[in-house]
Amino acid sequence: TFMNDYITFLGGKNIADGLTRGTLTREYVLVNKPDVIAVVTMGIVGDEEVKTWRSYTHLPAVSKNRIFIIESDMACTPTPPDFLKTLQILNELIAQTH
Fold it and tell me: Strand, helix or coil at 65?
């Protein structure tokens, strides 16, 4: 997926790596304790999703303040320039939290 590509190009490891089908449940994410969570915009639902994730204070992504919202049109169906722009945005967001 494009999200896997972003993660890989930024030197990360996708907790969904190796899955061939299905949906990532909240429980799956909680068990795998990611260092970063990228929420793709879904209208106003994106902000609510971030609030929900922030309630799981034991997650490294929460304690390190690494929950980010990214634009779905740009990130999920990118043109080559949009792919690069999304990659740059994620890189900058992650770098700001170091």
Answer: coil
Q: Could you tell me the pTM of the whole model?
A: 0.85
Q: Report long-range pairs for 19-27 (Cβ below 8 Å, ≥24 apart).
A: 26/52
Rg (CA), the chain: 13
DSSP 42: B
Please state, in angstroms and rounded to a whole number, the distance separating the CA atoms of residues 54 and 52. Answer: 5
**pLDDT per residue as tens digits for the range 43-86:** 678 888 999 999 999 999 999 999 999 988 888 888 899 999 99
What does the alpha-carbon distance between residue 52 and residue 91 come to, in Å, rounded to a whole number?
A: 23
The residue assigned the tokens 């740059």 is: 88
